[in-house]
Amino acid sequence: MNKLNIGLIGAGRIGRLHAEHLARNPLVKLHTISDVQLTEELRTWASNLGVPQLTDDYKQIMQNPAIDAVYICSSTNTHVTLIQEAAQAGKHIFCEKPISLDYRQTAEALATARECGVMLQTGFNRRFDHNFSRVRELVESGEIGRPHLIRITSRDPAPPSHDYIRVSGGLFMDMAIHDFDMARFLSGSEVKEVYAQGAVLVDPVIGELGDIDTAIITLLFDNGALGVIDNSRQAVYGYDQRVEVFGAEGSVGVTNDHPNTAEISKKTMVYRDNPKFFFLERYHEAYIDETRAFIHSIQTGQPPLVDGNDAYQSERIAFAAKKSLLERRPVQLSEIV
Question: What does the domain layout of the chain look like in residue ranges?
Fold first, then answer.
């Protein structure tokens, strides 16, 4: 089987992560990387990966008929245009989340991808985590009965920079969007209603920038289940990622991943090491499996496990959460059309 040629746009932190996984995958060739700033450090890094072409003009990827698929890892405000151009060039697409900060623009991008008949996978990497996928498997099999309650805790170890906050789209779109996708994934149902409350308890500048850093979001699902998500931009002990699905026949939960399973017992306390520090460590294997799944979809023609609609629905929930926070009321997803 011939290797797939991949072009990658955006060599920031997440772009480099994907590039390194692609470079190690025997089924693909990372053909070209595009970034707006071609520093010497970037050139050295790309050379060490064995990437034959580096450019500051992403159109060289779009116009190259040898490239089969594109990884879009650039800033969110570029995603819609890049999806549409890649689709029109007949290239399969992997796009980091969110697709856009406006779900209506996302719908336009998805329509173009459908019309052009290309694959589109969205970067909700948590679906590929071995823990969360096991929870989904047990829920889907009926092992715990009909879901009643879905609880998700998602707390970062430290807030991002103020410059990042300015362009992130806010906590709901930037951070909690992963949890909205996970809520749909674990419940097996769409969200019907959202009610969000938020506060600024970590960094007052985040509030000055029009965002929040702490939130509680309650969800009502189409299947009648209830959901609760709690978010914080700062958990001083590490990256806090836990879920529980409680059902009619039992429950299943996932605790944090730790660097090791050692538990220290002393006269005054019993303790263990802190959780893994952040998403790069916590979801290392999930990112690798996410890439494998995208390649498999292209090679077999099977639909992506996480498609554009998953991004669209999560963006609608994020929009509803922001509307709920501002208007201090529950918001029906039917309002977000």
Answer: 4-118, 127-282+314-335
Tokens of 118: 């290309």
d(CA 206, CA 200): 7
- The stretch 73-96 carries a mean pLDDT of 97
CA angle 29, 30, 32 (to 5 degrees): 130
Residue with tokens 């779009």, as numbered in its chain: 62
Of the candidates 115, 68, 116, the one whose C-alpha atom is nearest the C-alpha of residue 94 is 68
137 or 281, greater pLDDT: 137
Per-residue pLDDT, 13 = 92
- Alpha carbons 72 and 51: distance in angstroms, whole number: 17
The pTM of the full predicted model, rounded to 2 decimals, is 0.94
Using a pLDDT cut of 70, give the percent of the chain over it: 100
Domain 4-118's class? alpha beta
Of 255, 140, 126, the residue nearest 179 (C-alpha) = 126
Residue 40: partners with Cβ closer than 8 Å, 6 or more residues away: none
CATH number of 127-282+314-335: 3.30.360.10
Q: Phi and psi (nearest 5°) for 122?
A: -105, 150
Instruction: Give the pLDDT band (50/70/90) at residue 1.
Output: low
